[in-house]
Specification:
With 115 residues, this protein is mainly beta. It contains no helices and six strands. It has one domain: Thrombin, subunit H, CATH 2.40.10. It starts with 16 loop residues before the first strand and ends in a 13-residue tail after the last strand.
């Protein structure tokens, strides 16, 4: 029997939520995020952005009409296959690594913060 060691340095929260991903090259669009930790998260994306692209991630808080912003870099591309009700399904996405969080909660992030 082979045992694998957990490589993750922090706990994950397996919660599904919407995030706004923005980049200078590709504009901004809403996506579904899941499996978040303090260092990164998985984002479902049918047409993944290129590796190493820097993006702004906005987490909306609907009750407060506020947002938490982070600068992140695309670290990985994923294609996941899973069984759903006896049918084989697929999901493509990206792995984001958080570089830093932007202190202006709810404020538009200036484009110079991408660099």
């Amino acid at each position: 029997m082979t045992m694998s060691l957990e490589r993750r340095g922090s706990a994950r929260i397996d919660k599904i939520f919407r995030v706004l991903i923005a980049s200078e090259e590709f504009g901004e669009q809403w996506f579904i995020a899941r499996n978040i930790s303090e260092s990164g998260m998985l984002v479902e994306m049918a047409d993944p952005l290129p590796l190493r692209t820097k993006v702004i991630v906005r987490f909306q808080v609907p009750e407060d009409d506020a947002a938490i912003c982070a600068i992140a870099r695309i670290q990985n591309h994923y294609f996941l296959q899973f069984d759903e009700g006896g049918e084989l399904r697929g999901l493509t996405g990206i792995g984001l690594r958080f570089l830093r969080f932007v202190p202006e909660v709810g404020a538009p992030v200036p484009s110079d913060r991408l660099h």
